[in-house]
Amino acid sequence: MEPKTEVNPIWACRGFPAFPIALVAVGDPGSSSSCNVMTAVLVHVFSFDPPVIGVGVSPCRYTFELMTKYDDFSINIPGKDLVEEVLFCGQKCGRETNKFEECGFTVTPGKKIGSPIIEECLVNLECKKKMVFDAGDHTWFLGEVVHALSRQVEEREKALLYWSGEFRLIGNCIRKR
User: Fold this and answer.
1) In which order are the strands placed within the sheet that holds 166-168?
2) Fewest C-beta atoms under 10 Å: which of 3, 13, 132, 142?
3) Which residues pair with 129 in a beta bridge?
4) Judging by beta carbons within 10 Å of its beta carbon (0-12, 13-18, 19+), is residue 121 exposed, middle or buried?
5) How does strand 166-168 pair with strand 107-109?
6) Residue 163 — left, alpha, or beta (φ > 0 → left; ψ -120 to 50 → alpha)?
7) How far apart, in Å, do the first and last CA atoms of the chain sit?
8) Superfamily of segment(s) 20-157
9) Which tens digit of pLDDT belongs to each residue from 118-159?
């Protein structure tokens, strides 16, 4: 086994084996000036029952302002066919750009939330905000999943992951539990 060396903790955290990528949508879909979509890799399941998803957002982001203002948001899991849109939504500011329109997303009102969902995504999770807390350079917004839509398992396996600056797909299963 190869010996380990000390590394910068920030660099090491960015090397976690694959973060899920989500397009987080928040705000009033009827108002282009108070609705946004953001690419997020700090996304995690915090509870299975009830289902609670958390997303980490930097306070310097426009999405932070909207996540603070609104009581709900959606987590939309994109497939590999949306990699360019994922990059775009992570590089542009929603204050100056209507990213929904620029990406050609089909924006649909949530069934149980006011924020929109993105039809092109493989999975849509409608979340009602339950808790907010600061953790270093990001604030975590936790939301209970109150409604969910998902494509078939075979399609979900095309979900994008992010690992150390690279977009990836789920690899081969080596063992089931």
Assistant:
1) 19-20, 161-163, 166-168
2) 3
3) 143
4) buried
5) unpaired
6) beta
7) 26
8) Electron Transport, Fmn-binding Protein; Chain A (2.30.110.10)
9) 999 989 999 999 999 999 999 999 999 999 998 876 666 677
Count of helices and strands (H, E) across the chain: 5, 12
**Domain range annotation of the chain:** 20-157
Q: Are 139 and 133 in contact, with CB atoms under 8 Å apart? A: yes
Q: Kindly state the tokens that stand for 123.
A: 């999975």
User: pLDDT tens digits, residue range 43-98?
Assistant: 999 999 999 999 999 999 999 999 999 999 999 999 889 999 999 999 999 999 99
Vertex 14: Cα angle to 10 and 20 (nearest 5) = 145
Q: DSSP alpha helices (H): ranges in 19-149?
A: 62-69, 83-91, 99-103
Backbone angles phi, psi at 69, to 5 degrees: -75, -40
Tokens of 25: 């949508």
